[in-house]
Amino acid sequence: MDFERLYLKEELSITRIITIHYFEYTSTYHFPGESHDFWEFLCVDKGEVIVCADQESYTLTRGQMIFHRPGEFHTVTANGKIAPNLVVISFDCDSPCMKHFEHLITSIGENEKSLLARIIHEAKQCILTPLDNPYTCRMERDPQAPFGAEQLIKLYMEQLLITLLRRQGTAPLPHPSVKSVKKKNDALLMARVLSYLEEHLQDKLTLEEICRANLVGRAQLLKLFRDTHGCGVIDYFSNMKIEKAKQMIREDHYNFTQISDYLGYSTIHYFSRQFKKITGMTPSEYASSIKALSE
Which of 174, 203, 260, 270 is most enclosed, with most CB atoms within 10 A? Predict the structure, then answer.
């Protein structure tokens, strides 16, 4: 038999990455603006920002993304109240389909959030340059990076853009299978539990209380968190508390004792130990690092 090779069509290709950033800004942060000859998108992971693009102003909240085409002047400003977390990635892509991203502001779902998280994770594995430095102009490779890390960034980026493009179109939805229904139910359960944890950040929760309040079994919830987040429920809740503490520190309205009390820690010393365990810094060291970035 004579076999004929099918060369796969490439509708969209990311040729180069310029910068990958994950920022934790203060509530008063202001970036005066820039324009450049490559694409960039900004996604709000937490909080709220005001983005100006070619003299138009937009308020973006959690889960929203904006694209800046090459040559488009843009600025970013925090709203003065909420300390935002942002994913900002700039890249080269000459594919004709990129015209659909011009002036695009969209909301992302769990799939897109997962892809962004994977991009940031791989970037931390293969890029030596800190991802929180807004003045980075050249990323430095880590010679000890895991095999294929840079290629995974390219693939995840392309998958992200293709997913967004498909959502803008009218492609027919696949017939729901048993597997897809279970995946949807798991996503709904996860969203419900995460909302519950968010509402109880000031409390001391046990695993049993979380299961009882959300009508879910202990084993099912533990497996869901392990599969989705790679950690236990209580560990995830502890990380949520520390993320909230970091946000409160950046907003600079409360001292460490007030933050500790607000988040339900028994003592300021226990709060400081947990903060350092999760972030690698004491609250004071974190506050100093944030101020240095904002200056």
Answer: 260
121, 101, 124, 137: which is closest to 19 by C-alpha? 137
**Quick one: 217 exposed, middle or buried, by C-beta within 10 A (0-12, 13-18, 19+)?**
exposed
CA atoms within 13 A on the CB side of 87: 23
**Chain centre to alpha carbon of residue 106:** 15
The SS3 of residue 271 is helix
Taking the CB of residue 114, how many other CB atoms lie within 10 A of it?
14
**Other CB atoms closer than 10 Å to residue 255's CB: what's the count?**
13
| Long-range pairs for 180-187: beta carbons < 8 A, 24 or more residues apart | 186/224, 186/228, 187/110
pLDDT in tens, 176-186: 455 556 677 78
- pLDDT tens figures, 11-68: 999 999 999 999 999 999 999 999 999 999 999 999 999 999 988 899 999 999 999 9
